[in-house]
UniProtKB/TrEMBL annotation:
This is Transcriptional regulator. Residues 89-131 form the HTH cro/C1-type domain. InterPro entries: Antitox_HigA, Cro/C1-type_HTH, Lambda_DNA-bd_dom_sf. PROSITE patterns: HTH_CROC1.
Length: 132
């Protein structure tokens, strides 16, 4: 079953959120709240998914300009995401390998393969490029 995109429903969503280039911390926080709700919403409509993607793009643009980071190593990005999401190493066993492999990856003793990066990206709902 393919869901069709309802332009009217999308316009209603846009009217509620009024997405625009993020210029202030208050705007950033508001867009983050809306995006967080959409992130964890089950059974998102195609219109909600389109809005979600738009908001994520606006957030990424704002963060890249406002919070330019030094180069972060893949295992450091993984550690940060794990901490922020309260994910334990044991939660990743079976997703990217055995407990030994997970430990080595998290501690930077083993590099993250492309297939593991893809699995991590899907698990955390982020771009796999963070882990490469």
């Amino acid at each position: 079953m393919t869901l069709t995109f309802d332009k009217s429903a999308y316009c209603n969503l846009l009217t509620k959120v009024i997405p625009k280039i993020i210029e202030t911390e208050d705007e950033y926080e508001y867009v983050m709240l809306v995006t967080e709700k959409l992130t964890f919403q089950k059974d998102r409509t195609p219109e909600e998914t389109a809005l979600y993607k738009l908001l994520v793009t606006l957030i990424e643009t704002y963060e890249s300009e406002k919070y330019a980071l030094d180069e972060v190593r893949p295992h450091e990005a993984l550690q940060h995401i794990m901490e922020a999401s309260e994910t334990r190493q044991s939660d990743l066993v079976g997703i990217i390998g055995s407990s030994g492999v997970v430990s080595e990856i998290v501690n930077g003793k083993r590099s993250i393969s492309k297939s593991q990066a893809k699995a991590l990206g899907e698990y955390f709902k982020v771009s796999s490029s963070l882990f490469i």
